[in-house]
Amino acid sequence: MRLKDRGGRYLPESLLDQPFHFCPGCGHGIITRILAESIDELGIRESAVCVLGIGCCTFMDQFLNFDTFDALHGRAPAVATGLKLAQPEKAIFTYQGDGDLASIGISEIVHAANRGLSLTTFMVNNTVYGMTGGQMGATTLLGQKTSTSPLGRQAKLHGFPIRVPEMLQHMNGAAFLARVSICSPDRVVQAKKSFRKALEFQLEDKGFSYVEILSPCVTGLKKSPVDAMAWVREEMEKCYPIGIMKPPAGV
After folding, report:
1. Structure confidence by residue, pLDDT tens digits, 33-45
2. What is the CATH number of domain 23-246?
3. Phi/psi of residue 3, each to 5°?
């Protein structure tokens, strides 16, 4: 991977030289860093295009040192599909939150996976609408209290948390599906491996690839950075088991 020494700091070529302004303890900074490292290691920065969802993900265009697009709420997979059909030589991926993808954009991701076009989606799952006040979302855990579910999410009133990669497993066009976490250093190392594998599936034209990242929203969860990371490990990973779901082990 080619690194630049800028102000005594080593940064991936795919990152611009400016500080993140995400909330302290937010996982977006970690995710952005390992995504940039993966792109550098694969040598695809010049052909990379990131389609951003609405929410905190939208800030990514201020940090990534390659082409980005902002899509309407939930529509990033549709925009990415058009870009990939027009320029199949590009490495095109979407970067979305669970509020963007699993709520208003749920139909878009299902059809993108079903089409099997070789593009990649990264979904950051923090179980709340982080940018707009910590409201309950499609992936909010049962019993989890939010600004719009002060008594906790109840299945009979609000339905169950949506497990996106488990749903996409049944789509023939979905070639690689994984869920990772960034709540500890060993989890971050494994997350980066899945990032690279998902992008490699696209480069090898194997079909649609998807990685879900379990990440804390310290503001929405109203927890300290340390407690938020522990909550991801102790609570989120129970509902959302991490690992590679497709292809099956050994394939």
Report:
1. 999 999 999 999 9
2. 3.40.50.970
3. -115, 150
What burial class does residue 62 get, using C-beta atoms within 10 Å of its C-beta: 0-12 exposed, 13-18 middle, 19+ buried? exposed
pLDDT digits (tens, 9 = 90+) for 4-29: 555 666 889 999 988 888 899 999 99
For residue 185, what is the DSSP state?
Answer: H
Q: Are 111 and 77 in contact (CB under 8 A)?
A: yes
Residue 143 CB neighbours (<10 A): 12
Closest CA to 48 of 58, 57, 38: 38
- Residue 63: CA count within 13 A, CB half-sphere: 22
% helix / strand / coil in the chain, to the nearest 5?
40, 25, 35
CA-based torsion, 127, 132, 133, 136: positive or negative = negative
